[in-house]
Amino acid sequence: MKKNLLLLFISIFFIVIILEAFLRIFYPINLQSYYAEIIDKNKNFVALKKNHYHKMDRWNKKYFASYSLGNYRNRITQLVKNENEKILILGDSFTFGKYLKDKDTYINKLQNIFSDFNFINSSTPGWGLEDYYLYNEKFCKIINPKKIIIILNDGDLGRIKEKVIITNNNALSFKEKYKLYKFFIENFMIAALLRDNLKKILSKNNNKNAAENNFDGTNILFRPEVARQIVNDSKKLFIKLKKSSIDCNASLHIINLGWNNGDGKSNDDPKKIFLREYPNFFKENSIGFYDNSSYLLDVNNNKQNYIIKNEGHPNEFGADKIFNSLLIHFNKILI
């Protein structure tokens, strides 16, 4: 019995080795996972890697992008002739253009229109208001931009690191919670292949609204007292952002993206609370503010047409909708 079990394990081991070799030679799957890194451990501040090239993990053949990252820890989607008139753009995974090819990102399309400027898009997946401030403090004087444009997404105010912001333990990704899984998924192609196919099987069993409910952390539930504290902290962070922008001689502009606008009556979403209770905050503090919500109403009503299926980020059609809406505000800011 023991001999048979040993033979079985040996057979399975060699089959796995052969399959792994086959994948690496004939059907390679990119295992590179991280295109961001911690650059300040004390503040738990993460930004894009500097001068780095990343091929996105293969999970959906249509959305298999590669990212070129530059000297300012920014995503580069095209060569820009004008190096002097820099516009610093900060946002989360939407503004970074996660899963989208360079040409399909809305920042790249805006760059095509405003070719007299050099857009430095240092937006990073998972970022929030605190990260925008930390990046501005660290890099604004180095970049020396003329203007700073922050594209505020749902969840951005809630991603304040010092606070316990959620009611459960879903803040960490599955990979970060389970280190053994992380080891296999980042080192063995057969594990990545199984992961990809398991995603497809699970996605078929999800209801049609599952993808819409996944907004890369924007659908976090907040306890009322925590949401209130985040709103108070956010006011302080906006003021600090204004000061750090003045320190590097740049004007600050905030655009509320309004991608997942909803009814605006939420009592646990810090951003909705903030905009509802402090409608004049930005004007009183001389910060340019632009609300994009009304321009994406058709997207909110037909979200499935504009997101990557079973994932939740904007697809190329969603990015195009965002591009056309932001063009209105960029014309006001840059012209």
Tell me what the structure shows:
The protein has 335 residues and is of the alpha/beta class. It has a single domain, classed as SGNH hydrolase (Rossmann fold). It is 42% helix and 13% strand. The chain is built from twelve helices and ten strands. It has helices spanning 2-26, 93-96, 106-113, 129-143, 174-177, 179-187, 189-205, 224-247, 270-277, 281-284, 297-301, 316-334, and strands spanning 36-40, 45-48, 52-55, 66-69, 75-76, 86-90, 118-121, 147-152, 251-256, 288-291. The strands form three sheets. Strands 7-6-8-9-10 form a five-stranded parallel sheet, sandwiched between helices. The protein has a three-stranded antiparallel sheet with strand order 3-4-5, with no helix packed on it. Strand 4 (66-69) and strand 5 form a beta hairpin. Helix 4 packs parallel to helix 8. Mean pLDDT is 84; it is low at 162-172 and 207-217.
Summarize the entry for a quick read.
This protein has 335 residues and is an alpha/beta fold. Helices cover 42% and strands 13% of the residues.
